[in-house]
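Re-run with default settings, no changes from the original entry. Doing this only to confirm the output is reproducible before filing.
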Amino acid sequence: MASLRRLLLIPATLLLAACQSSGPTKEELEAAKNTIDCDYGGERLVIRFAEGEARFLMPDGTRVVLYQIPVATGLRYTNGLMELRGTGLDLQLSRDRITMKMICKAYEIPPKKE
């Protein structure tokens, strides 16, 4: 009888795990709240804001970290080579002596592949 219970428990556990993985996890939802998706001159940048940092995922897949600098209003992050400034979703990125206004929106979690 105990082996029958175990045999029935395995498919039930797998079914429960499959049902839970259909949507974003709690961690993914929390990370998305602090993440934005920006267009920088036709290239897509994803920026996640964490404690004192702006973490970039660049179009070529490299990761760049900028560090927060205190300002009276808005935000400012830099690493010496790049600088991010602005307020809300109205942001400018300076890189290689070129400053461009970015078109940003809240990050949307892509649907999971089944």
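The chain has one domain: 23-106. Residues 53 and 107 are 17 Å apart (CA to CA).
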